[in-house]
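Saturday, quiet lab. Running sequence design on the structure tokens for the scaffold JK sent over.
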């Protein structure tokens, strides 16, 4: 079995690069390990012993979200109204999110329905005895 770590217990350069590639694409730990051709146990052993490496990988996982935000902001900067509305609906919900208000007639509060207020269903008809099992 080929070595994947060096004498310090760090990943070899090619393994490290593949893991970083995977994390930059938003892969989970399991997916990045598969991408890099290593076992998850090895990954967890190395990152347990090198918390700075684990921190780096966690930061890389944020890359797709950061790119997505940058794309939206760039689109807004170019004047895209739909992206602008979408952004406001999610980032300024109290003011811009679409919402549905449920009220009674003419805006009155909805009344409560209690189970005792709901009519009971009628009993189903009984089959003649020759058809009963």
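Result came back. Writing it out in full:
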């Amino acid at each position: 079995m080929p070595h994947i770590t060096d004498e310090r217990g760090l990943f070899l350069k090619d393994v490290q690069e593949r893991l970083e590639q995977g994390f930059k694409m938003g892969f989970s730990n399991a997916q990045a390990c598969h991408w890099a051709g290593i076992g998850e146990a090895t990954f967890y052993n190395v990152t347990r012993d090198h918390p700075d490496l684990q921190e780096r990988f966690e930061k890389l996982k944020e890359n797709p979200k950061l790119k997505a935000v940058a794309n939206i902001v760039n689109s807004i900067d170019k004047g895209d109204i739909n992206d602008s509305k979408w952004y406001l609906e999610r980032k300024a919900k109290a003011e811009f999110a679409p919402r549905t208000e449920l009220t009674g007639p003419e805006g009155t509060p909805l009344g409560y329905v209690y189970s005792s207020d709901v009519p009971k269903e009628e009993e189903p008809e009984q089959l003649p005895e020759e058809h009963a099992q």
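Notes for JK: Residues 63-77 form the longest helix (15 residues). The chain has seven helices and no strands. Ask whether to fix the surface positions before the next round.
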